[in-house]
Amino acid sequence: MANETGPTALSRPEVLRGLKVSIWEGIWATVWMVLTTGAFQTGFALLLGANPFALGLMAGLPAAVNLLQLPASLYVERRGERRTFVGFTSVAGRLLWIPILLIPFFVPREAQLIVFLALLTVSSALLTINVPAWTSWMSDLVPPSSRGEYFARRNMLAGIVAMVVPLPAGLFLDQGVKYGRFDPRLGFAVLFGIAAIAALGAFSRILRQPEPPMARNATQENVLRSMAAPLHDRAFRPFLLFSALTVFGQTVAGQFFTSWQLDEKALNLPYFTVQVLAALASGTGLLSTPFWGYLADKYGGRPVLIICTWGTIVSPLLWTLTHPDFFWWNVFMIVLINACAGTVWAGVGLTQFNLLLSTSAPENRGTYVAMFSAANGIVGFLSPILGGLLMALLEPFRIDQGVLLWNNYKWMFLLTAAIRIGCSVLATRLPTEESTSTWYVLGQLRMSRPVSSYVRARRLTQPTGEEARSQTVGELADLRSPLAVEELTSALDDVSLTVRQRAAEALGRIREARAVPALAAKLNDPAAGIGELAAEALGAIGSREATHYLAEASAGPDASVRLASLRALARIADPEAVPALVRALDVAHPSRCELACAALNAIGPKLSTEQAILALPRLLYLLSQEVDRGMRFAAARTLASLAECFGQRPEAYDRLRERLAREEDPAVLAQESIALVRIGKESGRSVSESLVVLLPVLNRIGGQGLAYKQTLDAIADLALTPGTFYPYLGLAGMARDESVHRLLGEIRRKVSASDPGAPERIAAAMEAFAESEGPAFFAALAPYAVRDQSAASRLYDALRQRGEGGYATPEELLLALLLLRSAQT
Questions:
Q1: What's the rounded Cα separation, in Å, for the pair 307 and 302?
Q2: Do 563 and 595 touch, CB atoms closer than 8 A?
Q3: How many angstroms separate the CA atoms of 15 and 139, rounded?
Q4: Predicted local confidence at residue 218, as pLDDT
Q5: Whole-model pTM?
Q6: Tell me, what DSSP letter sits at residue 300?
Q7: CA-CA distance, 619 to 629, in Å (whole number)?
Q8: Which ranges of 360-398 would DSSP assign to H, the alpha helix?
Q9: How far is CA 723 from CA 669, 710, 713, 720, 729, in A?
């Protein structure tokens, strides 16, 4: 877990202690932050007489000092120590709010705003110069594989504070600012005084937090080269541009979202109401942060950042729908806005920070962070000032038609949405790092119930009993959530056999290819004891990535796994499995042999001729009479399936004809007949040659049963388009009589002009069919038979001879009608 860089690296207990201390430091720092920023800072500025331009300047000046991070980062890198620097600069910057709270009491009215802006700028400068050092410190302390999870937890706890603390603070401040029960100056002084106490709490935590050894860049020879390194990094520049535009989209109108709520000429909401509604944003951010961290650790930060950046477009558009005259409508809209904004900005903040760490060089990370902050500082300084100027310029463009109200605030909100669209486009061009595509992540979310899946997946990482774990795995199987694949693959190593079994079954139901390596590792693992279930799951997943593993397992030591692997190969139907399947065509192992035939049968349409030929000798051997019936049947079916590949091998037709002449089992005979017809057609054998072999088969099978119908259907394919006879084979009773009547009617219409006696002949044929009188049936239709050498004519003559000899089943008479219709056509 520790970031082991040498003998002086922190031990695991020290790392764990440092992570816990950092969480408490974040909590105290958040208390200070929520009491000195946002609505409280804006309200204090309004108390001092700030106008829109001053509000923009207030937001911009602190950001401008981010430029100081560059020299500060170089100083820290050369100093080689971060804790003291971070601790004392942060506490000094936060304690400057003590003189700020005294401004309304001791500074002349005309100078109050200027003094406030000056102190705010100094405070921001002290707090910003330690950001590179703190980021480098935390990057070394937090293991890279756990950054998403850890910072999600840290941000979540800070979010609880950010959600709870402002509520009583806002309620208290309303008593003075909105209701005049005490001097508003006193209200702000109390809040800022409490913030100073929290600053001391954060300071004490920083001093107790252990510091890992600092990676230092010994190759940088001068300051300018060190400062320019991030700008020469092609992977870092797109991220820098994206983050700067994101800051612009946040800050150009950022202060006016709060001002729009508090301004007496706008929504004029009480501080408490604003803080309650803002708490909703904190709450949704709090709830969603662990989920975003979970996704970032699983799929990479980039796709999560892209998704969340697109989500930031929604809230400024919704702000344009608020109206000063509709209090409860505004409350509803702001609830929706804050819920949306809190959710997506939590994801942006988390993944952007993680991407900053992953795209910056470790030995120069402080400089990278400083450049990142400096660029954002320049934008953060200029954009609020530009926003203030735009607010003034847009003042005349006011539309007030009752419900329809457009003013400078709403024009700014619309501009913010447009800028964020640009951010979303830039996000798609960020370096891909070790992450999956955004569309893939969206697909995973679409196929899942994200919240339910996340809750249950995280439950699997907690210490729970066997029954609870088994139940959780079952619930994930029912959800069929691909989000939980990694947790379920980990469960394949659970001590409990029940949990392992249910995990394998769940992965099979989810059908996600990411599970293939983990399942494959269990195929021949006797300790796991889930090889059969793993093979079934791999077959259900259907990924060709599993073919190699299943092919090996099909010849492994466990009989049940061998059979399950062959079944899985049949489901995957990957031609690469042919060599393994051919090896399994062994009469010594009937079950394996039959399953291998089934797999080859499934793969058939995908096989090349060269691949199919590998199996031909063994398949023909399996048709020998000394081979068990089940294997003969399976081999015959496979030969029929692969007939297209065997057409150029004369021995296939000849040897199959020999086997068919000796076969006695009706089911095998039917499959061999189908194979003979198909191979014969592919190899160009004549219809007469095939009929010599196949017509006696009908007598050996008998005139009824499924095998008889299958054989007759194969014979029909010699002369008709394959599939023509099939619809008539399942007919019986009235349906069959109606079909015969319709076919005879078609023939009558075609010959009525040349044969006046056609109606009588057709009626006689119908009566003969009803009585299964073959001689009378063919005698009535004799004038219509075409005497040519076509396949249809030859098969018709063969059926006529059978009928005149006493072999006349309804199916054969129906086939004769179809052949006659074909000849007439």
A1: 9
A2: yes
A3: 12
A4: 47
A5: 0.65
A6: -
A7: 13
A8: 365-393
A9: 20, 12, 8, 8, 11
